[in-house]
Structures are given as structure tokens and as C-alpha cells.
Amino acid sequence: MVSGTRMTIRGCFFTRVQYIELVYRGLTDKLGRIEMLPPAILKPQPLWTGKQVVSTLLLNVIPKNAVPLNLAGKSKIPSKAWIQVPPRAAPGYSPDSMCDSEVHTHTHTHTHTHKTCAKQTVYKDGQRISTVL
Fold it and tell me: Which positions fall inside the RNA polymerase Rpb1 domain (predicted)?
């Protein structure tokens, strides 16, 4: 469960070799051709997401004439519990002050044995505003 969660986290990508290796390891009993998905990112190099690895496994495990996976069920949470609330105002935020000349980004890329994670941090006036994985 932990590996599946870490593999499908946003911002983690796999190279072609890593993607194919994970798919083949998950489909060791499969005979015949394996249907692959196109990469999520094409440039500067083709990269696949962890969700695409899981989708590829499901795509090849489910027989062609079978009904695809589907989930339907009842919820214990009533629909009234999902209240639409307007977004809260961010302190110190002004849409006019967020021009490109005032906002600087810095990208860190960490390559591990099985995944490449990119982390981008946004700075304004020397202070960190946001970090995106």
C-alpha cells in the first residue's frame, strides 16, 4: 500500500525503462502482447506517471470481453454535508502584485532508483509563497 501510494503521488514520474520494468514485473503471468499507454510528458524526455503504471496493469489484467472496473455504492455522508463555501482570502495576496517580474521560481529535481520527483518553489520578495511537488 505504501509503495502504491508513493508511486502515484503527484509530481513523481518514471522514465521509459522504469515504466516498462514496473509493468513487466506486475504482469509476469501475462502471455502475448502488453498494451502500453503513451507518456504523460513528452518533452524534454518522455515520462510516465505512477497512475499510468497502475492503469496499464489494470488494462492488461482485465479480459477484453469482461466489463471494466466500476464502483457504485451508497454513502453514509448526506449530500447536505458537502457545502459550497467561497474560498478564504489569503493574507497579503493581491492579484496585481503577482506579475512574472516579481515572482521567482526554483526547481529541484531528485532522482531515486525508481522515480524522478520534481519540486518547484515559488518565491516573492525573498519569501517562500508556495511549494509544488
Answer: 5-97
